[in-house]
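Lecture notes, unit on protein representations.

Consider one protein chain, 212 amino acids long.
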Amino acid sequence: MFARVKKSGKHQYLHIVENRREGKKTVQRVVSTLGRMDQLTAKGEIEVLVRSLARFSEKALLVLSGKSEVNVQTKKIGPALIFDRLWKELGIDKVIRSLVSERKFEFNVERAIFLTVFHRLFPSGSNRFCDQWRREYVISWVKDLLLHRLYRAMAFLGEEIEDQRDKTPFAPRCIKNIVEEGMFRIRRDLFTGLDLVFFDTTSIYLSGCQKK
């Protein structure tokens, strides 16, 4: 459906019109006549209707005047605020910043990692998709992060620790492990117990020989 202004006599009238198929033809039918344009404009009724319709659209306002369009962009703020609070309470930001303090990165590594982790909590997907998806959210300090910075941040987490090379039988110890251990130390006290342990089984495999 769409809006149409049609002149009848000395006045213009605002109509809501729909397209529909009748056999092989497309015909138009007036669903509703909203009234004379001059009266609707004078009373501000068009603006009232636009605001009412806008409640059902998160990304755009539908302007029914038929003369102009208003481009509106909406962004979500709640999810990023909540996750940023949890991120800081867990001390992840402090751990990452301490690890990059002596490195000469030209971008905010902590914010790049925050963005990629935040993305995986929702639709998930590749870093390329994350670069598009983040435009729907208000996230502090990530506006200037380019796609190749996200790749670089992930490479940083996967960097193998030199003094730990070949020390583990399966996957090598890397920066990611240091981040996890740092998070544990920040929240540990004399009475901290260990109730639950998560294992990364990405590189674990089993093999055997079956006797006939």
